[in-house]
Design brief:
7-stranded mixed β-sheet; single chain; elongated; about 325 residues; alpha+beta
Amino acid sequence: MPKTWMVRAWRGGRYFDLFKDNAVVAIGWSDIGPLDALKTREEITERLTREWPEWHPQKISMTAGQLFRFRYEMQRGDRVVTYDPGRRVYLLGTISGDYRYDPKLDNDAMNARPVQWEGEISRDLLSVATKNSLGAISTLFLLPPEAAADLERALGTQQPVPQSASEETDAGESDLFKDVQDRSIEFIKDHVSRLDWDAMQELVAGLLRAMGYKTRVSPSGPDRGKDIVASPDGFGFESPRIVVEVKHRGQTMGSQEIRSFLGGRHPEDKGLYVSTGGFTKDAYYEAERASIPITLMTLDDLVDALLEHYENLDIESKQLLPLKKIYWPA
């Protein structure tokens, strides 16, 4: 089976009709000129850097990779697909010629390849696995063989996946949701881990305020084992008085750190020890036998609590951890 490429028709399928009416696929970044003059990925990278010096190096690298693949890896005879999200249809065809730089197409899509289009495929005819494969956000990418075969089947039959496969739809969608959810949580943890210590302390204080407490945050410097004091009145006079220590480094906290934190606590105090580096087994044992209630909060625990109370975070805390809400079928 030949390779099958996805070439996105821009955001919202803006160029879908242009692709179909002109029998082409095309990509942008046209300001760097024809790709014929750039023989290697490194030369494309250098040209992009000169044209858009403000771009992040990762964006430069990804764009150079897509331009190189479009010019040098895609071949006559390869299959190609594009998508119209408004109508929820894919257009499938075969690359019928060589790369060309075509200023007559569109200012933002001059890098083109001719295509012989064969027909449209409703998204509803495809398996969940294929829909997942087609959901990548890149402008240009290579489809896995299973997804390519499913597109060919749907084009030829214009029928949905067989009943035996459709019975797996719910499970496939559930697996996809779990994958997206797990990845998003890991990205959130990455973001929290990149905060400096002062920002981490403010984020923990913001979480406590979202839970209904008022907080006092200790200034930088010696704090006698406390970074935040949370209580109903904000002064620590009313119970519960929660004393918080925040450790934001790779080192795992052990029993000695827990004993040091517990020293000097009042009998009515409650303790919260946050460590993004985690805790040793001995640290948990020390907390279990402590004379006051103490909770050890890892990075996982912190992110779970932030997600649970995110809607109640104040604006300053949300600026430290900006998140976007997405909707998923229930």
